[in-house]
């Protein structure tokens, strides 16, 4: 007479399947964290570009000199980042000049921020 004994514990196959599932969940979590940090850095660049564009507009509006029409470009270091900006001033009628600043990171073509205003041309 032989009696069947119950086995306790996990087999090797069960252990390998559990490790594979754990690895897949871990990789997905790391990918999500990586994407989240890239998104946060991108949003921080946009915020700094927006603040720079607003500062450039405010400086121009505060200046007593009449705005020069046409397009100009420049570079600014702001919050530890190198930005390039493009200023376009056009006639808006009624003795007004429309001024627009487009700001992007240096060595990138994507515009991160825009700021526009009207100024009296006198």
What does the model show?
This protein is α+β, with helices and mostly antiparallel strands. The chain contains one helix and four strands. The chain has one helix spanning about 10-60, and strands spanning about 70-80, 80-95, 95-105, 115-120. Strands 1-2-3-4 form a four-stranded antiparallel β-sheet, with helices on one face. A hairpin with a 7-residue loop joins strand 3 (about 95-105) and strand 4. The model has no long low-confidence stretch (mean pLDDT about 90).
Give the gist of this structure.
By secondary structure, the chain is an alpha+beta fold.
Mean pLDDT: 89
Order of neighbouring strands in the sheet with most strands: 1-2-3-4
The fraction of residues in strands falls at: 25-35%
Order of helices and strands: HEEEE
Break the fold down into its secondary structure elements and pairings.
Layout lengths: L11 H51 L7 E9 L2 E13 L2 E10 L7 E8 L2
Antiparallel strand pairs: 1-2, 2-3, 3-4
